[in-house]
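Listing 4. Sequential folding, example run.
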Amino acid sequence: MNDLDQTDVHTGKAYQTSSKPRSRARRRWGGRIFAFGAFLLLTTGISLGASRHHAQQRQALLTADETRRFAPSVLIAPVEASPAVVPVTLPGTTAAYAAANIYARATGYIAKRNVDIGDHVKQGELLAELAVPELDDQISQNEATLEQLKAAVQKAEANAKLAEATWGRDKPLLKDGWVTGHQGDIDLQTVKADEAAVSVAQANVAAQEHLLTVLRQNRAYALVLAPFDGVITQRNVDVGALAQGNANTGTFMFEIMQRNVIRVWVYVPQDAAFGVAPGVDAIVRVPELPDHEFQGKVTRIADALQSGTRTLLTEIDIPNPDGALPPGIYCSVELKVPRKTPSFTIPAEALLFNRNGLQAAVVKDGKAEIRTVRVARDLGTRVEVDAGLRAGERVILNPPVTLVNGSKVQPRPLGTGPTT
């Protein structure tokens, strides 16, 4: 710095002074002011930072408290008891209540055929008649033989009576000596022989009568009769055809089915088989008859499941007086199976699946209670459970992932609008 010229006020003399000390003093005061300002800024920054941190901490505590106290609004649905009867729909097959294949029992030519396919017949009605001339000849011959044997019986009885009369006359004479002992023995043995001859003749007659009974029965088989009321479904013979009456290779003549009652065969799977019993109601539907429902009841069950399919053969009798339900067709069978164990249904969206298995959240006293459930049957939009829930409880639908046991919730019944 340059020295400055100064004037003495008392003497008026000019003198020269130096500016260095004054400049140094100004620098000293400037540094102090700068340091004070920096300190003031630092103090203000620290104060502002501490205040902001305190505010953030307080806000975080408030947010945590609000989060802890926040109860989300959740949709709920009631747990409903399953109905006492379980409808089960299964495929089935219709069959005639009774079916019989009519075979020839006598050998002969078809002399008459009175029925054809589709004819309705009554029990005992004549279906066909066989011409059996050889059998007729055998019957005639054996009837003549029977007459001969009966005559032989009469002759043997007459001889026996004569022998008894001779013995009755000679017996008192034998005591008086008028008849020798030898003659008496002859008379006695003759009586016994004639009595035996009568027995033999009578046995021959009985055997011949039995033979005639068999022949006449075979002759009766030449008349083919309907065993029950029904309809002819097959006809394999015509007039003039030879029918063989052999037991192994007999001619298959007709098939007849009884259609006033139809049997329906259905195989019930194991999960429903334990409730099936005679008397269970059934409805039979045929796709080709959409306007008809055939009512019936279970009449017979196999009482044993098939090991290969784990199904129970079940028969249902359907009254069919008008013949609207034909045998041998596909149908669907709806069984009203009584429920053996109680169960409940809930919406499918109420289920939770995690490492603990299938669970459902129940609202109880404003809090969520998570329970393990066991699904017995999947019904699509609903599921049937038989453990973990009770009728009348309320389950949470689509529970949030943050939901834990004991979480507070605001239940909102299904079908209401969201809360504001």
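-- end of first protein; second protein begins --
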Amino acid sequence: MNQANPSPWQRLDTLMWSNRLDRLPRWQRRLVWLARLVYALYRDATQGYLSLQAMSLVYTTLLSLVPLLAVSFSVLTAFGAHNALEPLLLHLMEPLGDQAPEIVGSIIGFVDNTRVGVLGSVGLAVLVYTVVSMIQKIEQVLNNTWRVEESRPFAQRVSQYLSILLIGPVLIVTILGLSTAARHTAVVESMLAVEPFGTLIDAGGNLVPFFLITFTFAFIYSFVPNARVNFYSALIGALTAGTLWQTVGWLFAHFMVSSTKYTAIYSSLAILILFMFWLYIAWLIVLIGASIAFYHQHPEYLSSRSRDLRLSNRLRERLALLVAGHIARNFLLGTKAWNTAGLAAALGLPKTNIRRSLHLLEREGFLLRTADEPPCFIPATALDNTPVKSLLDAVRCFEERESGCRVAVADRGIQEVERRIDTAIGQALGKMTLRELAATLDDPSGSAAKGAAEQTDQAASG
């Protein structure tokens, strides 16, 4: 194809992936970000990142639903609000149509049979463990969405999970109770008789379930992942997920009306199958909202076609030099030390890649982690005593010893080629130290560093 006259698809591809968002006009920046977001969600869904996690959560929910409701029922009973549990479940199961009351009735029956007060210490411990395991599974899935590799400490995890179990049901029921009570006040009832206030109040009352589910999603996105989540990003994801919940729920309810053939095929199992199908859709909506919140807070993860930016050996070496050089530069200038998020924002690269580079340099003895929260990084040795050649050697040979791969044992011909390459690199760098490298670098907020990061983005995405 003639490169001088690219096709519309080629021009669109160039616009989407060959430009940094901060280099585009504002209107183009929003459209390109939205196009990249849609692509990323489609990619994550079709490659199994979202669908497999949603299916695993369906399995966990089926095992933990009754224990979770039993604990919630006990908490609400202590506050005299246990009668609110069934209407809440009916609303959540509303997309199941006429089958919803039957499913909710069965679930409530199981909950009534699970008497927490007569379970004993062992039974109660198993009950709480089952519920905590469900919340832990949700945290693991959301941590995967937020590219978080570390879970919370065990003691912190248990205390926060129990807080959610104790406060969550009461908070939801309180919000529902306040909205119902507000509607029956004398002021509101008098306004209902006056138009257009009556129509507006009715419309607002119909929006209460939407705002309730949106609030729940925002809470989950903000507090469940082991990461610092921007509330505005969590709210963007929650509003999208809430809109999807209402829209897909309406479509699913219409589907249920025409689902008589499933009843004919599966008989009594049809209700269970449709219930599991709705659970899968519900968790998929939750994960889509979480992904939108993540990509909104970390747009640098939208700079590549792949979910995780895969760097070649050359780009891995370049990134290690950039990271080590900028950390050394700040150390020389006496300015605040870099942390992972700061370097990712300055270089325009995903935190995952920055974190791996920092881990490599820290493990090989070039960097030290400070006690700050989040931790910052400083040089581990005197900059004049750190040859750039030794840093490159560490990057090129990282994890060779641990892998035990037989390819590492090369024959004499390959060894001679490697010796020549190593000699050429040594001659090119001479005795250049990390201090000298740091002195050549520009401020990472300047155009030079942005250009270097842009080249890395384009090479990796291409």
